[in-house]
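Tokens for Crotonase/enoyl-CoA hydratase family protein. Go.
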Amino acid sequence: MTDTVLIQRNGPVAEIVLNRPDKRNALSLAMFDALSEAGRTIAADRAIRAVILRAEGPDFCSGIDTAVFTANPDPAALIARLHEVPEGETANPFQKPCTVWQEIDVPVIAALSGAVFGAGLQLALGADIRLAAADARLSVMEITWGLIPDMGIATTLPRLVRADIAKELLFTGRKVAADEAAHIGLVTRLAVDPLAEARALAQDIAGRNPDAIRRDKRLMNDAWLASRTAALRLEAELQAEVIGRPNQVEAVMARMQKRPPRFR
């Protein structure tokens, strides 16, 4: 972990903080590795029940730090990393910082404001829920550098927007205002204070049956593009892992007794 990517804990909620406000939270190669490591740390901690992705300063993330390119004028080293997929993984080192949030089994909420550009947008799309301030501006900006987006967007954007909208965003790199982003599905909804609402939502989720929440996420992720038969089978299999178990019984008893649940 570096001081530009922090993990902060508030009980069962973890906050992953981009901490480079002087650079508008532009992602360096060190931050790529730190975000991936943060995801692995969260995945290994069974006490965490929800995660918030946020940033210090007015901008969530202005994209990749251009020093990544200027410090490596020969693209061969970067190209080599594109093909580095560790054994047992599906993502390379550039994709992992964004895709790891879908690999962990607890909900991830992104609190967005200001610039959400390029790599920053792809990181936000890796979250399950995106709450955006009215001043948020989102852009698939890679085309302005003559590149394609390559940090996992192929696994996230097609689930959120129509194909023609996705293509327009990739072809033009135009900046999308927060209200349009909510309308087309890039963000979940607008919020006057995205971080405050993200924290309230995370605490709400953390107070519910963690066995069910983890399987809710898997159900939506795995069934979204599955066949009808496979989706229905998965739904039944996951319910069988929850129903009648101690945490599910506790949810029922707490509701009947009008008290906060005490989940294991």
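DSSP finds eleven helices and nine strands in the chain.
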